[in-house]
Predict the structure.
Amino acid sequence: MSDQLKAETNGLSIASLVFGIFALLTSITVVPVIFMSSMAIMFSWLSRGNRRMNGQALAGNILAIISIIISIGVVIAILSGILGWAGGAHSGLTLQEIIQQIRENAPVMNLIGIRF
């Protein structure tokens, strides 16, 4: 039985699992999760050969897909926050009025040298 387990476990499936775990850990970022997830999916499919995907490769594949979904959710949340701020807080204001509000509400920016 141990020979069969050794035959099913190969380096590519372990790499897929490792990249899947790293993808899940970096899922709140955008650029690293794209790299980690693509590597995990690629290694999981390469580990198959002519056989079915083993457990480690399947786990790496599932973790990569979950991390991509989380990353898409983070991007949507950030974009909706930006659009909500731009549309709700400053609706109807001109660019001059927005700059004036920034000047009044952020005196620290003037201290560090940022001028509007």
Observations:
- Residues 2-91 form one domain.
- The chain has six helices and no strands.
- The CA atoms of residues 92 and 98 lie 10 Å apart.
